[in-house]
Amino acid sequence: MAGKASGYVVGVDLGGTKTLAAVVASNGEILCRVKAKTPVEQGPPGVLAAVATCVKDAIAESKVSRSSVIGVGIGVPGPLDPVTGVVKIAPNLGWKDVPVKALLEKDVKLDVFVENDVNAGTVAEHRLGAGAGVNDLIGIFVGTGIGGGLIFGGRLHHGFGKVAGEIGHMIIEVNGPRCGCGNRGCFEAMASRTAIVRDLANAVAKGRKTVLTKMAGNGDLRQIGSSALADAYRRGDKLAVKIIKRAARYCGIAVASLLNLLNPEMVVLGGGVVEALGADYVNRVAKAAAKRTFDVTLEGVRIVPARLGDDAVFLGAACLARERAAKD
Amino acid sequence: MAGKASGYVVGVDLGGTKTLAAVVASNGEILCRVKAKTPVEQGPPGVLAAVATCVKDAIAESKVSRSSVIGVGIGVPGPLDPVTGVVKIAPNLGWKDVPVKALLEKDVKLDVFVENDVNAGTVAEHRLGAGAGVNDLIGIFVGTGIGGGLIFGGRLHHGFGKVAGEIGHMIIEVNGPRCGCGNRGCFEAMASRTAIVRDLANAVAKGRKTVLTKMAGNGDLRQIGSSALADAYRRGDKLAVKIIKRAARYCGIAVASLLNLLNPEMVVLGGGVVEALGADYVNRVAKAAAKRTFDVTLEGVRIVPARLGDDAVFLGAACLARERAAKD
Prior knowledge:
The structure is a homodimer. Chain A has about 325 residues and is an alpha/beta fold. Helix content of chain A is about 40%, strand content about 20%. In chain A, helix 7 (about 225-235) crosses helix 8 (about 240-260). The longest helix of chain A has 25 residues, at about 240-260. Chain A is globular, with a radius of gyration of 20 Å. The interface between A and B is large, with 49 and 49 residues.
């Protein structure tokens, strides 16, 4: 039987549409990936049965021995308690108070460690990606929504109720547009993909033109994805450029607040919007942030793109499961 | 000679106008207080000589033996390095790169521990005030400016460059009024006493009436203090009520951002504005914050007034000096 430090871990990224599972070695190497549709309509038992199948398939495909697998780490989209492994709410899955750890352990017969997906992604960037060697790091993931993870002194900051990190719901414009959460002017309501396409659709409704109207298959600008946005931006579409630049500036303003407040060494920017827009977006964010941050605070700080893409969540979950196993 | 745990510590609050020093026992009891004008015009050597005199006077007046004093803790208004004891910048003192620890140790012949004043105040509330027993706590002090301190897992969060906690420079209104720091819409520019009196003066310039015009001796509303503001508020002065209620709402919005981001167990509100306006202000802040915070995040969280008033900074500095001495 493998020692706990050297064994394999299965990392899982449980998303609202698909589930990814991968067998991960102690050096972070990914031995194999398995992907499956998340059967959300089947509720927690069906979804977790599908997750268990993914885990077993990944182990089988990787050809490592069952006994060399020391645990499973799973990233779930929603606030949860990483100690009990109970997911409090997961809107994308329609879940409330689901004991993921207990249910999954019964099925896979391995120790299961549960973490919020964005926290897991941040941990992966910290341990294996852009932030290796950094002590204080903030991960910001800009996509349909905006999520974040906080690492202080090398460890995830969970907070009192274990739900810290809702970076997308820092308010950056008191009377700003309504957010999905009900508030006004949340960072997410100002700079997410959802905010960008809302602003595009509103401008088009007022008669503004954009190449995106043609690019949106059914004409619904709100369905436009990050890569189409990036395409229009690179082609110099005036409306897209204006709205995306503004969103990047808002992101920079949120980053400035985070720098002034928390003084991290590094801010890692990831998620669909950042990946699609690339270095130009990251540079705009960094510039807008630097302009609004104290000199003493900015000294030595790096604002960088994430490196791990879609692998981040399962890799981070795997890292955390391994660290937990080493402690036990 | 007294043991390190049981000895006395001198706590100092070095302010831009006055310096407070007090001999503090291990249980937090204050044996005596000494107060002196801060001779800012004399520069660092003169100011630190005056601080040393305060320390010696406090020891002499307290009648404890010199050998029972195990160290000095001093709170300084500005970003600094608590390890080296060098103050990077202190605008209120006109200082830049002043080695407070080294200079003061030479004079007082005791170990000196230097901490940012607002951090020290937060530590005092955590160890001896409103937050005793709490693990994750945020201190917010609303006065001329707005400062803050962050305690995670029972310890001050200093961050990468040791300058974390600039709560007043979280941006809550992208296009808001200009802040002293140069940015627009900082929390400080929206809710500090400076912001409140600016809004009052602007409204009066536009013809609005307030009892505060009479109360301001020389007619300069910008010189109005927190207690006069509170007085006008309690007397139902329409303009003062409107502007103060709005400032409290902005404070609640900043608190909501902090709760969503950091999920602390407690937020302690202190400083001149909070002390003058009392429970009514704290309740307004708490209500505005609760409205904008996720239910799972708000569970069990307390938003409370500070308890230690003007004693907080020197008490916190004393606590930190004692803890540092116990480690050595």
